[in-house]
Amino acid sequence: MPLSMRQPPGDLPHTLGALRRSSFSEEKLGARTVKDELRANLLCRLERGAALFPGVVGYDDTVIPQIVNAILSRHNFILLGLRGQAKTRLIRMLTTLMDPHLPYLAGTETRDNPYRPISPAGRALVEELGDEAPVAWLTPDQRYVEKLATPDVTIADMIGDIDPIKAARRGQDIADELTMHYGLLPRANRGVFAINELPDLAGKIQVGLFNIMQEGDIQIKGYPLRLPLDVLLVFTANPEDYTARGKIITPLKDRIGSEIRTHYPLDLEDGVRITRQEAWTQRASPVVVTVPDYIAEVIEQIAFLAREDKKIDKRSGVSQRLPISVTENAVSNAERRALKAGEDDAVPRVVDIYAALPSITGKIELEYEGELKGGDAVARELIRQAVGRTFTRYFDGVNLNLTVQWFDMGGSIQLDESTPASTMVAEMGAIPGLLEKTGVLGLGPNESDALRASAAEFILEGLHAHRRISRSEHRVYSKEEKKREEPRPRSDPSKRQFQ
Hints:
Blueprint: H1 16-20, H2 26-29, H3 34-48, H4 63-72, E1 77-80, H5 87-92, E2 102-105, H6 120-129, E3 135-138, E4 144-148, H7 155-158, E5 160-162, H8 164-170, E6 180-182, H9 184-187, E7 191-196, H10 203-214, E8 217-220, E9 223-226, E10 231-237, H11 239-244, H12 250-255, E11 258-261, H13 268-278, E12 288-289, H14 293-308, H15 321-341, E13 345-346, H16 350-355, H17 358-361, H18 368-373, H19 375-395, H20 401-408, E14 413-416, H21 421-428, H22 449-465, E15 471-474, H23 479-482, E16 495-498
Parallel strand pairs: 1-10, 1-11, 4-7, 7-10, 12-13
Antiparallel strand pairs: 2-3, 5-6, 8-9, 14-16, 15-16
């Protein structure tokens, strides 16, 4: 049974002698590496059928089995994927497979195994004090070290450097191992060391990494130092940087055991689940916030369409943060409207998605054709297409001829984004068949005006997206602005007229 399955003793031992007499004996802990530990704990979870990476959606049949295989094989591995594909979240969750407590020699920079110290300081401590050598304890979070690779990272940051001040204080030769200042990687000993955006790491540092991975020795300022680190190395990278541009040195690629590709949600339902899980919609507010399913699907569909659009750079990807941010902005716009109107319910409408344009334009990289058209125009077209697809999903085969005929006969309605829900429902009640068809969206006769207004507006937007009715957008000016010679428009669209 792995140590993580055991209940740790009430008083953890704090000397090497007490540790030898505890459940953390040398027989069970001495030769056990961090990869052995992760493997043993993972096997227990698999036997129990426990969740491995709770909160990660859409990877159950693709990415997670490959990560499981890599851990069971005791591989260092890399996650390749575009931005916003939960790569960092996945590697941070590796700490859930670690033992709750792990002993180390207190005071050692490399967190030495009490039974097998690797640093000169650790070996000297055990030799001098024997069973009285002090022991401290690490939690899983303390055993995870993460570094974002940037061009300015030095070999001293990652591996270490000579510390002349330490040498002077101790009166030792500057080449003595005891004068070395260890970098991030040695300090991650007996844990997980993660490097994000690996291709941005300088070549000479990559050489240092693969030498430690393969041989366990390093050089600091030309002095050879044998340091057999016990560490699981995990990396993340963009596939474009990792393969096409040749920024990874071949020996390092060869020593990475598993190369695992991540991906965006494969179907809309998974995307909606992720966005609902991550978006900040359960917020303290004077109004009750409700995000209808069809609004959530429209927002998610924007991301799916953007990933297919030729005007958007596919090499940069469209992050899952896009629908999350759009949802939060749309909810905030609905919240603001409800507070101004004195209503109790805040329900986002399609117009609130248009109000969230800044959450879209800032998260897409445009190709040349898209640059010519403009970010706002591209984003508006994505919203229109998303509404059209979602409308088809709900209303395919539903007869809306009465509503369309009313518009064909000259009917029109003007909608203001700040109009209270009760006023909108009253105005839309004059359109034949419109409010009745909100039942297709799951609304009953006793639903709130906010929900009914949102649903009815979605139907009108869907008819417009399918070119069955027309819509124009008008800029609205305040009374003060009307007095000026050059009136200044508010954010567009604030009023929309369907006809």
